[in-house]
Amino acid sequence: MTENTPQNNEPLGATYQRGPAIMRGSMIPSASSTANLLGGDDHQDWRDIDPWRVLRIQSEFVEGFDELADLGPAVGVFGSARASSDSDDYHAAERMGQLLAQRHVAVITGGGPGIMEAANKGAALAGGKSVGLGIELPFEQGLNAYVTLGLSFRYFFVRKTMFTKYSSGIIVCPGGFGTFDELFEVLTLVQTHKMTSMPVVLYGKNYWRGLFDWLDGPVRKRGMISRIDPHLVLLTDDIEEAVHVATSTIPSV
Ligand SMILES: CC(C)=CCNc1ncnc2c1ncn2[C@@H]1O[C@H](COP(=O)(O)O)[C@@H](O)[C@H]1O
């Protein structure tokens, strides 16, 4: 959603969440916490403000680690916030959530709509752990209705740390910039050995083929990356295979 127009059952338009606060209508601020942090403060000396922000950032890390420490094995499912509930991708992500839950593996998503909702729905309705790591965004509706353990973050980078720290594998469904960001975060951390290698499954061969060919073609030929390890990155249209590979490093599965 891009503007604050009234929704179906929302007479005041969309809901905006900032930390513990919920805002609607004219109370919604024009910039998010991340935008304020990265944009600098032209009205005050930055030194008056950023040290305090550090404490807030720190508290997001502490709360995140605290809530997720006992989660157990988990797989991250990423993908478009805009996938409609009658799309093939939505149904596929829902099935992934269900299969993961049946294997007693928690599902971690961004907690939003589209693919995130689908994976959370599949997991929750199968009785599994359905985690949503939401992000404070202007005009957002909050966590989707299928999250059974939800956390809301002000800062993208804190949230991304939680995704990577608590996932043993990831399944990346078709998506846009947000999805690319999450995919490349994991690939970068693995390549630089900041994270032990984890399986990365790209679901939707047609969708991902172009990117994959480019990476394995010009990018690799010019020596910008080494060969993509087929054991690390799998392209598939098979939901069962996606789940099997994404959970392949979890001993209990
Ligand atoms: C309808 C709409 C734009 C809602 C945005 N609401 C969101 N709520 C939570 N996580 C999100 C949201 N948008 C993007 N993300 C993050 O970025 C990814 C999707 O971004 P995209 O739609 O591919 O680029 C998701 O895996 C998620 O982790």
From TrEMBL:
InterPro entries: LOG, LOG_fam, LOG_family_nucleotidases. NCBIfam families: Rossman fold protein, TIGR00730 family. Keywords: Cytokinin biosynthesis, DNA-binding, Hydrolase. Its EC number is 3.2.2.n1. Gene3D superfamilies: 3.40.50.450. The lineage of its organism: Bacteria, Bacillati, Actinomycetota, Actinomycetes, Bifidobacteriales. It comes from the Bacteria. This is Cytokinin riboside 5'-monophosphate phosphoribohydrolase. GO terms for biological process: cytokinin biosynthetic process. It catalyses: N(6)-(dimethylallyl)adenosine 5'-phosphate + H2O = N(6)-dimethylallyladenine + D-ribose 5-phosphate; 9-ribosyl-trans-zeatin 5'-phosphate + H2O = trans-zeatin + D-ribose 5-phosphate. One of its GO terms (molecular function) is cytokinin riboside 5'-monophosphate phosphoribohydrolase activity. Belongs to the LOG family. It is an enzyme of class 3 (hydrolase). One of its GO terms (cellular component) is cytosol.
